[in-house]
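Troubleshooting log. The previous structure file for this entry was overwritten by mistake, so regenerating from the original sequence record. Sequence copied from the archived sheet and checked twice against the printout by T.R.
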Amino acid sequence: MKRTSAEKVQIIACGAIAREIVAICNANGMDHIDLECLPAIWHVHPEKIAPALRQKIAAARAAGYGRIFLGYAECGTQGQIDKICEAEGIERIAGPHCYAFFSGTEKFLGQCEHEFTAFYLTDLITRQFEAFVIEPLKLDKHPELRDMVFGNYTKIVYLAQTEDLELQQKARWAADYLGLAYEYRFTGYGDLEPALRALQAPMNKAG
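Regenerated output below.
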């Protein structure tokens, strides 16, 4: 039986975690979820995220979705996403950023206390290292900037969602490119999977 819009969930997410959301939904038979993504590269321009989220939320409301979920952590928006969630009565993924919820937010925040010289990669950032790191920082045109930008880092930590050997090789290449040590950690989907699986349950309604 075809679901109505009111029975479906609209996830409005960062494109950086689109693959992971689709994989989790497919693995759990979550065909009631529709995914709408904003450009992953907007992490370089976080001021663009909140206005676009408001537009997407308005469109989802107009389309009759009974539930909306934001596939964003705080993501450098200086509290703007939380303000949207409060005003709209919707939820987001818990945590400050994707590195945290992939690792498990509590675990990640504990590690950060003694790992403040680490530069983190996820599958997406590894896959698009040139677009997310090299090009925005102009390291391809000005390689002398490498040590200026990364001089205080000691290692790359690759937080892997999959066990893709090609991505592991590219993460090692990225570490060599930046002149940093390399560490691999398999996280899987971390807190993202239970957050999405919770969308299988109906929302509690007052009254």
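Residues 49-62 form the longest helix (14 residues). Archived copy saved in two places this time.
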